[in-house]
Amino acid sequence: MASGIHHITLITRNVQANVDFYVGFLGLRLVKRTGGYEDATQLHLFYGDAAATPGSLITFLVWEDGSLGRVGYGQPSEISLAITPEAIGFWLTRALQHNVATTGPAQEFGEPVLRLKDPDGVIVKLVGTSAVKNAAPWTGDGISGADAIQRIRGATVLTEQPQATCTFLESYFGYSVGERTDTIVRMVSASGDCVDVRDATGFWSSAPGTGTIDHIAFRAPDIARIQKTYDRLVKDGSDATAMHDRKYFYSIYVREPGGTLFEMATDGPGMLIDEPPETLGTKLFIPPHFAEETENLKVMLPQFGLPGEDRFIYRELPFVHRVYTPDQAGDLTLVLLHGSDGNETMLLPLAANAAALATLIGLRGRSTEEGIGRWFRRFGPLSFDQQDIRAEADALAGFIEGAVEAYHLDLQRTVFLGYSNGANMLVATMLLHPGAIRNAVLLRAMNVLEETPRVDLSDARILMVNGEHDLFGAQAPDLEALLQQSGADLTVERVHAGHETGQHDIDAVRQWIAATLDQEA
């Protein structure tokens, strides 16, 4: 009978560092890459053994450059992975070779334990144990079957209600009380894995975010077992969710009395439902209910390389940014500045449809007034913080200078595309730093500077796309006149639209690039 842990899900803010640690250092197999089932713009990675066996799966929700979480009560605090006791020396040596800091080995409940931290700061314990075994460990890159990670050993849960948490694990997930210390009760499953329930009374509360463990999922043999458990939970007053179809398993979620999120998941259908064993984890899947957006989502999800594969090396620059490189990239680059309430991925689909072979760099504005992402502060619909505009324009000019050096941008073959607030940022930057931007696409733009300097933009080629029914469209003629007076090579397109973007913008951008830049290639 299925019992014990099915998988553990964590949150990372850097997908490449995460892959390098869990595949490159720990030697786990990447067994699935998919868009999130609640939010398909969020990448979800699954690591496990050779056969993606339940009980071996460590999964990550990717919040690229997301807010940091805080470990505290109401949340798991660490995960542990089983190795053979004889492999402790191997992993000490490997950690030294990979410059991974370790503490230990120390004895915990009679087992030797090495403590590590992953790139997000999550504690990962390698536990020498014979309590759990695996017939299909993933080997390679200098890791033999005898030294490889076997499966999940367990996790530690922080709670202010240790007795209630233990009872919950015993009543609904089949765990029984094992050994204990002054502050920890070890709950053990029939499969041999464990959940250490730690009394965190007086500790601070947890906060979700990157660098934290989101939930622990426990195994169920089939849907009937999940339904039976769900019925019991609801009858007993727990706020369990209805059953979810996650394609690879069916599951329910519930918070235990101490606040930690638990899941119960079926062993089947399993990770082999859409990939053969030989190619597990090599293809990106989009959840079926987001199928119509598949091509757009593939552009928005972060790219990474497995060990030995090519990968893009990000550099520290003034703005958080996301790079998308198509399979057959040309020499054109589009730098994208989102509108209000957007982020660095917002314009990636539009740009990819307008310039399929271009490398795309989406930037994230740094102003978050009104609780939304913007490029500079505003006081009202047409009133803006002039000091903030100038400071952020300076920062954008610095980003461009840094990207030219770090990413070898050719400014003659780089188009800066901005929408709404992002387009306004581009206008301000061109006026305050003439020459920094040679090619620009302005979607629904206006001039936000109260004092406009006289500049020479004769080396700039600009496409303005204005919506005929745009509520802010009355500001466009003044900007058109300003850019023409500055000597810019200006093309103006008016589309049957309001302030929103659509296919008409894609067509206009594609045609302008073909007429203006493709003839130079």
From TrEMBL:
Coiled-coil segments = none
According to the entry, every stretch annotated as the VOC domain falls at: 4-129, 151-267
The protein's matches in SUPFAM superfamilies, at most eight in alphabetical order, are given as:
alpha/beta-Hydrolases, Glyoxalase/Bleomycin resistance protein/Dihydroxybiphenyl dioxygenase
Q: What is this protein called?
A: Phospholipase/carboxylesterase
